[in-house]
Amino acid sequence: MPNYVVNDNAQNNGDHEVHKTSCIWFPKIKSYTSLGSHDSCASAVKEAKKVYPQSNGCETCSKPCHTT
Q1: Are 56 and 46 in contact (CB under 8 A)?
Q2: Which residues are CB-neighbours of 27 under 8 A, at least 6 positions away?
Q3: Phi and psi for 45 in degrees, rounded to 5?
Q4: Which among 4, 7, 9, 44 has most CB atoms closer than 10 A?
Q5: What is the mean pLDDT of the chain?
Q6: What is the per-residue pLDDT across 36-65, written as a single tens digit (0 to 9) for each?
């Protein structure tokens, strides 16, 4: 199961993006909250919404969960 994190710094639209730790964007994230291992981005985003209600999947590594 992949490990996921949520970026503590919001995008311009207010979204906090959820990334796999294997994502090409992960090394650029300066501050994040670990979400642990998940079977899918859906459960990772659900977990992220407990911390940041406006969370969204990364378009690159969590495309099925990317909504905006």
Answers
A1: no
A2: none
A3: -65, -40
A4: 4
A5: 96
A6: 999 999 999 999 999 999 999 999 999 999
Give the sheet arrangement for strand 55-57, strand by strand. 32-37, 3-7, 16-20, 55-57
Residue tagged 């985003």 (tokens): 45
Burial of residue 31 (number of CB atoms within 10 Å: 0-12, 13-18, 19+): exposed
Q: Which region holds residue 14: left if phi is over 0, alpha if psi is between -120 and 50, else beta?
A: left
d(CA 53, CA 55): 6
Tell the residue number behind the tokens 């796999």, with chain if given.
20
